[in-house]
Amino acid sequence: MPTPDEGHLTKDPIYDTVEQGDFRAMLEVGRYGQRTDAFDAIIGQTRDHFWDPMDKAYIDFDTPFDVTREYILPPERLQELTGAVKDRLDEGQQIGLANEIVRWTVSNILHGEQGALSLSTSLVDILRDPGAQEYAANQAREEARHVTGFSRYIGVRWGTPYPVGDVLGDMLDELVTTPVVYKKLVGMQMLLEGLAMGAFANLHKHTRDPLLRRLVQLVMTDEAFHHRFGRIWADRTIAKLSQSERDIVEDWAADCFEKLLFNLVNIRQKRVIYARFGLDWEWVREAVRENYDNNVRRSEMKEGTNVFRVLVKTLLGAGIITERTRHIYAGWVDMRELDSESHEIPGAAVAAQGIAELQAINAKRRRIGKKAIA
Ligand SMILES: [Fe+2]
Ligand SMILES: [Fe+2]
Question: What digits encode the pLDDT tens for the residues 72-126?
Fold first, then answer.
């Protein structure tokens, strides 16, 4: 039986935990004075990149876009919009299917944001350090505005979101409810946040809907900091793990990667969409297979903003991939190419530009606020 600490793989006291549900441990007087400053720089910057999804100064949800006539994403970027599936549909239906696939994707992003919100609050419940708690509470506040932002986007474009995909739903459930800290931090802060950063960079680069483009940029200004929190954990933990502990983290990350790679965007997960167009999901799967085999998938992985490529880069940069599991990723991504690239995550430039813009908006608002008080 592992001791609780071995279970969490805690190597730095700033990640110490109390038992889930043990609120009394939070009232212990000695705890308040033991506050880490490791996250103060990130916490301090939240004021600069503040934004509000309910305020038109930041984002205008009245921005028009006709989802029945225009493609939100170029159709050639969607695996279903090729070959036999495309041939079965008229032009209006092709636009309809393409945009429903985007609706499904954005719905799953919304569920992922809810997962990140609930996971952040679950960290507040178990982390003992007041500085780590403050970071997690702050992340929860930012994830809450992402939930609001994506809900509003889906609301104005389609009305309601799709239900969560089975695989993502199971994974979010596991990450939110597990009391094990390393699973939460590797699973959410590194894997899913890395995946989200890639998905946002991709949407930002290719979408034709200016509202979606704006929304993902604003979200990216926050996510860039969440990603940094994961890196701080890895920097303070990975090198101090024993060989067997390190293997546990590495194997668990590889398991999650494979689960996500093969299931996240597969046809079965999206079966609810095809039914609306009178298409049988198993027929769609066969039709897509003819055009979109593993070779196509591998060549797509080479693109800088490909979501899984970003994820592998994140794990590699954090030292979570070693020779033991390198082969699992090497089947999909050119690892030598990744080794020689800078550690900057794709999307970082978009986030930096967004932060500069928010600083200007927020500075102006503070000046107006001061005048009103005077
Ligand atoms: Fe988020
Ligand atoms: Fe996040």
Answer: 999 988 888 888 888 999 999 999 999 999 999 999 999 999 999 999 999 999 9
Q: Which ligand is nearest to the CA of 113?
A: 1
User: 45-60 as b/e, with b when 16 or more CB fall inside 10 Å?
Assistant: eeeebbbebeeeebbe
* Dihedral, CA of residue 127, residue 132, residue 138 and residue 141, to nearest 10: -10
Q: How confident is the model at residue 4 (pLDDT cuts 50, 70, 90)?
A: very low
Dihedral (CA of 146, 147, 149, 154) sign:
positive
Count Cβ atoms within 10 A of the Cβ of residue 327 and give its class: 0-12 exposed, 13-18 middle, 19 or more buried. exposed
Write down the pLDDT at residue 295: 62
CA of 258 to the centre of ligand 2 (A): 21
Q: Which residues surround ligand 1, an ion (CB under 5 A)?
A: 113, 116, 143, 146
Ligand (nearest to CA of 147): 1
Here the CATH number for the domain that contains residue 269 is 1.10.620.20
Kindly tell me if the per-residue pLDDT of 2 is higher than 50.
Answer: no
Domain hosting residue 261, numbered range: 18-25+36-373
Per-residue confidence (pLDDT) for residue 257, from 0 to 100: 87
Asked if residue 170 is part of any domain, the answer here is yes
CA of 359 to the centre of ligand 2 (A): 20
How far is ligand 2, taken at its centre, from the CA of residue 294, in Å?
30
Task: Identify residues whose C-beta is under 5 A from ligand 2, the ion.
Answer: 116, 223, 226
Question: What is the number of domains present in the chain?
Answer: 1
